[in-house]
Amino acid sequence: MTEEKDDIGISKREHLKDYTTTARSEYSESSLKTIKLMVNGATYALMEGRDIKPHHTLLYTLRETLNLTGTKISCDYGGCGRCVVLIDGKPALSCLLLSVDCIGKNITTIEGLCLEGKLDPVQQAFFDYSALQCGICTPSQILEIKALLEKYPKPTEDQIREAISPTICRCGGPYKLVVEAILAIAEADYKNG
Ligand code: FES
Ligand code: FES
To answer: CATH code at 181?
Structure first.
């Protein structure tokens, strides 16, 4: 059987052979480097080129590779604030960060707040005050409040509103209830839970 060749005399089979050889060698297990990401106190070893690629955002890695879907994807370009995580304790938009730039940093997602089945005081306050509707913006707001309380254990109403202002609530925003919830836990001495 003769092989079909294109105008410049290369057969499809030869072309595919080259392609698959390159692809295999690029991703062969032995040549892959391990990249470690610290998320919620655990270290994840990810294979560079297979699990984690240079263009992967932190949001993508968290949701698609680590299956931590508590961090929400919405606009995916830094406009809505619904993908907030804490990087070394500070709120950051995970859709604007490359995963490889987060090596060596402590990443906290909403999943990291609930330890041994017990809600974090901020999560509990949101629940007790029904300070959410659909909940898409809630993980971001909770993490923004966590960072705020670390800095100001007894924040003012303005500080609370400012802290959650980067996150747009499409449901109209139970902002008043968020403020009430956080003022209440601050009053009860947040640091002591
Ligand atoms: S998904 Fe990151 S800011 Fe909208
Ligand atoms: S509660 Fe639905 S987007 Fe905020």
So the answer is: 1.10.150.120
Domain residues for the domain of 70 are 33-113
Structural domain includes residue 92: yes
Give the pTM.
Answer: 0.83
> Which of 79, 113, 147 is the last residue in one of the domains?
113
- Cβ of residue 177 lying under 6 Å from some atom of ligand 2: no
- How remote is the CA of residue 34 from the centroid of ligand 1, in Å? 28
- Out of 88, 113, 138, a domain closes at 113
Q: Same structural domain for residues 190 and 127?
A: yes
In the 3-class helix/strand/coil scheme, how is the chain assigned residue by residue? Answer: CCCCECCCCCEHHHHHHHHHHHHHHHHCHHHCCEEEEEECCEEEEEEECCCECCCCEHHHHHHHHCCCCCCCCCCCCCCCCCCEEEECCEEEEHHHCEHHHHCCCEEECHHHHCECCECCHHHHHHHHCCCCCCCCCHHHHHHHHHHHHHHCCCCCHHHHHHHHCCCCCCCCCCHHHHHHHHHHHHHCCHHHC
Pocket of ligand 2, candidates 126, 134, 145, 167: which has the most ligand atoms within 8 Å of its Cβ, to mutate?
Answer: 134
User: Looking at the 3D structure of the chain, how many domains does it have?
Assistant: 2
Distance 6 CA to ligand 2 centre (A): 56
92 C-alpha to center of ligand 2: Å? 19
Read off the pLDDT of residues 128-169 as tens digits, 9 standing for 90 and up. Answer: 999 999 999 999 999 999 999 999 999 999 999 999 999 999
CB 185 less than 6 A from any atom of ligand 2: no
